[in-house]
Amino acid sequence: MDQNEQNQIPQTTPTEMPVIEPAAKQGWWERRTGEKLTKGEKIWSIVFFILFLFVFYVTLDANKYQALVQVVEGEGRVGVNPTDEKLDFGDLSRGTAAVRTVTIKNDTYVPFFVSVIKLGGISSLIKIDENNFMVRRGEEKKIEFATYMPASAEIGKKYTGRVYVFKIPAPGF
């Protein structure tokens, strides 16, 4: 090989050069992986994102109540604390019960589906009169939460938990 052949840079035509798009024209996924998303993958990404926002909205819009009851000694003793912020069943002796009511009113133009979830140590003591139902525009429904203190309950024990009332928009119903 002579000196001229070593110093020569190979010539390429413009069609052989790789096309590098500026970062502004590339999507997030393409900048990270170097691969483009197909049309179907883009559609599924958008659907998933909208579903995520919907679930996020429903979770934030849920009515959240702290639920509590305390077991006290004696027969037929009921001490009730009236409040709207909590499902406070107060002090109950063994064999007694207390009821709390939550009112659901639909002032929107869209009907919604209502679902109640109970969590915590008190969840096994709470009975819900109606769960998983629709509330149409302008309707008002009351949900009764009843707690019965069993004979086996430990005196002085405080049962606590949370109750979530989800209102999920249901257009078309």
From TrEMBL:
Annotated transmembrane regions: 43-60
InterPro entries in alphabetical order: Ig-like_fold (IPR013783)
Q: What keywords would UniProt list here?
A: Membrane, Transmembrane, Transmembrane helix
| Transmembrane in keyword set | yes
Protein name per UniProt: Uncharacterized protein
